[in-house]
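Interim report to the steering committee. The following record documents the input for N-acetyltransferase domain-containing protein (215 residues).
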Amino acid sequence: MKISIVVTQEEHFKYAQEICDTIESSALLRGTGIAKRTPEYIQKKMSNGDAMIALADGKFAGFCYIESWEHGKFVAHSGLIVHPDYRSLGLAKKIKSKVFDYSLKRYPDAKIFGITTGLAVMKINSELGYKPVPFSELTTDPSFWAGCKTCTNFEILQSKQNKMCLCTGMLYDPKEKQKTPPKHPFNEAVLSRLKKIKQALFLNKLLSFIFLFKI
């Protein structure tokens, strides 16, 4: 089976709805938050050349798009998804790596960042040279954070003034001298533990709030 990963064009508009459905169903299956996107938004990214799609014999296999913030000071990779029929093939890493290299050429001066709850994405990012950072090092553009409104964890983000959530922030600065292997190698056990601690802290605060409210 040959899978090609290419920069999107208008001919790929027909896959937009399937992409949105796959992203949403995957998030529901994992029980994680998701910033929803419409087919029209995905098509806009496709026509601007700010997305890459993986195709297997004309069938949708995977996707990821680029967003820029603060006049190109920051860029983020969003909507990384692999169709269920093509998982366990290492395709997510291939798509992410292609989008990463493409971003460096398209936005050479931009810091590349992302927020995620997925350990698999964290591992890929770490291997590309990203490092975990507090949200304060990410974009302050309100339109980026507004994109989290459809996420199930948005109230947590709001309560922390966009400074913390269940997601982990990761950043790649092209101006920093990169090392091989990355300066901050991925440790799945540590990040998994960090994720559980975050969840426990937020749950305890939520229960305390409910208790006080009832009183």
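The two ends are 62 Å apart (CA to CA). The committee is asked to note this result when reviewing the revised timeline.
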